[in-house]
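Reviewers asked in the last cycle whether our approach scales beyond single polypeptides. To address this, we selected a multi-component target totalling 1161 residues and predicted its structure end to end. The input consisted of the following lines:
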Amino acid sequence: MQDRALSCEPLVRSNRLAARYPGASVPAISSITFAVEAGQRVALLGPNGGGKSTLFRVITGELAPSSGELELGVGHSALVPQSERSRLDYPVSALDVALMGSVSRLPWWRRPSRADRALASESLRRVGLEDEANTTFGELSGGQRQRVLVARALVQDSPLLLLDEPFAGIDAPSAELLAALFDQLAAEGRGLLMATHDIEQARSWDLVLCCNRVQIAFGDPAQVLTREVIERTYGSSLVPLPGDESLAITPPHHHHHFEADR
Amino acid sequence: MFDPFALPFFQRGIVEILMLASVSGLLGVWIVLRGLAFYAHAVGTAAVPGLVLADGLGFSAIFGAFGAALVMAALIALLLRRRSVGGDSATALVLAGALALGVILASDVFGSQGSVDRLLFGSLLAIGTPELILAAVAALAAAVATAIFGPRWLAAGFTDRSGSSDSLLIALIALAAVAALAAVGALLATAILVVPAATTRLIIKRLPLWQLTTAALAAAEGAIGMTLAYQLNVPPGAAIAVLAGIVFALVAIAVLIHQRRPRLAPLALTLLGLSALAVAGCGSDDGGEASSSKITVAATTTQVGDLVREVGGDAVTVKQILTPNSEAHDYEPRPNDVGAVAASKIVFASGLGLDAWSTKLVKESGSEAEVVDLSSGLPVSYATGEGEVHADEKEGEAHADEKEGEAHADEKEAHGHGETDPHWWHDLTNLEAATTEVETALIAADPAAKDQITANADAYRATIKKVDKQIRACLNKVPANERLIVTDHDAFIYFTERYGVTSKGAAFPSTSTQGQASAGEVAALEKLIREAKVNAIFPESSLNPALAERIASDTGASSDYTLYGDTLGAADSPEGTVLGAEAANAKAMVAGMTGGKERCRIEP
Amino acid sequence: MIEWLLEPLSEPIVARSLAELALLGLVSGTLGCWIVLAGRSYSAESLAHSMLPGLVGAALLGLPLVLGGAIGLAVGASLIALVGRIKVLSSEIAVSVVITSLFGAGVLLGLAPATPAGLGGILFGDLLAVGFGEIALAAGYAAIVLAILFVLHQGLLATGFDRLNAKALGRSPAQLDLVLALLLAGATLVAVQALGNLLVVAMLIGPAASARLLTQRIGPMMMVAVAIAWVASLAGLYASYHAELAAGAAVTCALVVAFAAALLIRSLRELLASDTRRRSRGAQSRGLRLRSRRA
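The resulting structure, written as C-alpha cells, was:
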C-alpha cells in the first residue's frame, strides 16, 4: 500500500463549492476552492459552526454539493471523527474498531479475512496500541481512543485522510505520537486534511484553508496566516495572549439549539 | 340533529380534553425534547397490575392505575441513572414485568373477569368527577413544575438524564399518563401526550411558543376529534388519534415541500388548510334518528337486548349497546350509545359484574333512566367454579384431581366481584324469570302498551318452555355418563347443571384477555380428558380457538363444535337470539359428545 | 428431583412450548442484541400494534389474516423509518406518532359491522397453543435471521458504532436500519401469534439487555443472550407447570428476573473492581477534564 505514486493529480479538488442542509435557507459553506494533493498536509481552520464538518460531509458523500464542482481522486476518503463523539458503551475491542475500516473495501456480503485482521493489528501497532488490541474501546483513554480511530482510517487504506480535530482534548504522549504519525503518512504519499483550532500547528503544515461559512483564504501558511485573515476567520473571538506573539483562540460554545440534541 | 355541545356528557368530555391539552403543551415538549415518548407510553400501559388489584380487592381503578404508574416511574428513574442500561431497554423490561405481573394476578390470583380489560380503555364520553379532578391536578402540577424546573429540564436535555428535577419530570409524566388513560385509553394516550408536541416541533423552535402552540393544537385536535366522533358515531379516543396522525403527516409534508421548494410553500399551506377542511367536512353527513311516540329503552349486552326486543316487540325501541362483534374487553362506548342511554327511560343490565360499566355510563350520560339489573331476582344461581368441583368427584388419577381441586379452591376464595357466575341466561328458567321482570318494568314505564307487552311476554315464555323441553330431549339422547364437556372458559355452569351435563374443566382460568393458562393446568386437563374419554372440547365463538384446538389434537378429542358463551351470533343468524344460541349450544354439545353420530332438531 | 425435572418435559404441551421458545431464543438472542444496541426497544414493543389495521382490513376484504398482519407490519416499519428521517425528531417520537395513528385507524376500521370478533386477540397469542406448524415457522425464520445477521455482521457493527462515519465506510445506515426493522417486523409476525406481544417483547429485549451488562464483546454478548433466553424459558415453563402460573407471563417474569440478576452481578463486579477501575480512570479523567472545559 505504500507504493502509491506521488503524482500531482489531486486527491480532492473543489471549485466554488457550496453545500446547504435540507431546510436551511443559506448554505453552510460556499465559495470553497481548494485542492489536496498526494503527500500534502492541509490544515482546515475555522470557528465552530464555520463549516469544517460540513466540508468533511461533502467530501465523504454524506451531503451533496448544492453548487460548484467537487472532484475526488481514486479511492475513498477516510474520516477520523472526534473521539468524544464515539459510543463508549459499545461492546467492541480496539482491534474490532480498527477492523471496521476494512468494511469500506469489502462488498456488503463479505466478512473480513485473515489478511484484514493482520492489517488491523499492524495499524494498531503503528499508532502504538498493539498492547491494547483486546481492551474494550470505552475503557481506553481519550487519546488512545483517538489513536484507535486513526488506526481504523489506516485499515481503510484511503489516499485521503480527513481528520476532525484529532488533537482536541488528548494527552501529550498521544498528541506527539499522532503528530509524528501524520508526518509519516504524508511522507508515504497520503493526503491529509485536518480540521483544527491550533493556529501554531497549522503554521507547520504544508497548506492552510481558512473558512468561516465562506472561504477566507487557501495557500501557504506563511503567506496566508496574517492577522487579518485570522480575524476574518474567527470573527472577534480572537484574544492576544499577554507576553506571547502567537494568538489564542477561544472557540465559542457549542450551539445549544434544539438541533444539537440528536 | 341537536347540538352535541348541549349534552352534559359531551361538555364534560370537552372540559377534560381541554385540561389534558394544557398538560400536553406543558409536558409534551419535554417528552419530545428529552426522549421520553416510550416511557410516556409505557407508564400508562403498565397500569394493568394496578387495575387488576383494584378490581380484585375492590378499590378505585384510578388509584390502582396511579399506584402502578408511580412504582413504574420509580423503577425507571432508578434504572435511568445507570449508564450501562439503555433507557429504552429498561423501559421495555419494566413494562414487560408489570404486564406479566398483571397477567399472573388476573389468571392465577383473582381469576379476573373481562371487566378488568375495559378499564384499560378509557372514554371521553364517560368522564366523571374523579377523572376531571385528576386531569386538573395533572395540569396544575405540570404548570407549577414547568415554571420552577423548566430551565433546569432544558439545560439537562443536553447533558444527561439524572438528578432530582428529572425524577420529578418522570413522576409528572406518570400522573399525566394516568389522566390520559382515563380519557382515551392506554394505547392512545400518546395521541394527546406526544403527537401534538411532535407536530409543532416541526415548525417551532422556541420554547414558550412551542408549549403554547402544542397546547392549542392538542385542544383543537381534541375538540374537533370529539365533534367528529359524535357526528360519525365512533369512539373519540380513536378519532383524536387518527386526526392527530393526519395533522402530523400534513405538517410534515408541508415542511418537506417548503424545504425542497420554498416557492411552493403558499401552495402547501393552502393544501394543508383544504385537507383540514375536508377532514372536518366529511364528518357532517350523519343525521339524527327520527323519534316517535314509542318509549326508548337501552340494553347492555346482546342477550339482554334480544330479551327486551322479544318482550317489547313493536311497543318499544331497544338500543342495544354491545354488538356481537364488539368484544367485551375492548368495548369503548360510542357517542350514539351514550346518547341512547341518555334518551332511554330504562336501562336493562345483565348484572353480576358482566356489565358493571353500565351504571357509570348511565350516571355520566346525565340520564334519568332507571337501571334494571336482571340478575337481581333469579331463581337459579351458582358460584363461579362450582361446575368443575363436580368434575372432581368423578374418578380420575389422584394427581390430576389434586391439581384441579387446588386450583379451584384458590379461585373461589379470591374471586373478586360477586362469587355468582354472571352467565345466568344459560339456564332457561332464569330467562323466564327475567322475561317477567322486563315485562313488569316495561309496563310500569308505558302502561298504555300493557296488553301488547303482556301478550309478547306470554308468547316468549311459552317458546322458552318449548325450547327448554327440546334441549332436554336432545341431550337425553346421550347416556348420562357420556355427557362430558371441556370448554374454553368456565361460562356454562347454568347450562350443564340444568341438563345434567358434566363439565370436566376449562382451558382458561379467567375470562379476561389478560388471562393465560398455565402449563400445569393444561397438562392436568389433557390427562383428565384422556382418562375420562371426553370426546370434544368446545371453543367459544368470541375467543381465539387456538388453545382448544391444540388440546383437542393432543387428546384426540374434537374441537369442531363452537359454543356461544359470552355473546350471541351475528344479528341476522339463527344464533343471534338467546334461544337460537342455546339451541345451537345443545346441538353442538350433542354432536361433540357423540362424535357427530347423534344430531337433533330444535325449533323455537 | 429427577422426576420433578423430567415430568414437565414429557408433557407434549410443555415440550412444544420449549421447542418454540428455544428457536425464538436464537432469534431474540442475536437480533435482540442489535435492537438493544441501536436503542430500538420502543419499536420492538409497539410494532405489533400496527398489525391491527392490516388484520381488520384483511378480514373485511376476505384476504388471509397473515397477509393483512404482514402488510400492517411492513407499513408500520416503513413509516417509522420514514418519519425517523426527520432531523428534529428522534426515532422514538417517530414510533410514537406512527403507532398511535395506525392503532387508532385500526380501532376505527374495526367498528365496521362486518369485522369478525376476536381480531385483537391475535396480539394475545398463547404459548401453550403452539403447534408443529408454528415450530417449523420459527425454525425457518431463525435460520433466515441467523444467515442475514452473519452476512451483515461487520456492516451492522461498524454502523452501530459510528453512524456519522458509515457513509465514509461505504455503508448506508438507512439501509441497514431498514433491514433491522424488517427483520424485527418478521420476528413480530412469526412470534406474536404464537407467544403474544408481551412475551415477544420480553424475549427480544430481556436476554440482550442482560447480556449487555455481563459482556464486553458483541460475539459473547449474543451467545450469553441466547443462553439467558433458553434458561429463562426453561425456568418459566417449570414455574408454569409446577406452580400453575400463567405460562407466557411466567416466562416473561423469568426473563425480567434474569435482567435484575444481571444488573446485580454487574453492580457487584463494579464494586469489586472499583480499585483497578479508579486507576485506569485516572488516565481517562484527564481527557474528560479537558473536554469539559471545552463544552
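Chain A touches chain C through 50 residues (CB under 8 Å). We regard this as preliminary and will revisit it once experimental data from Aim 1 are available.
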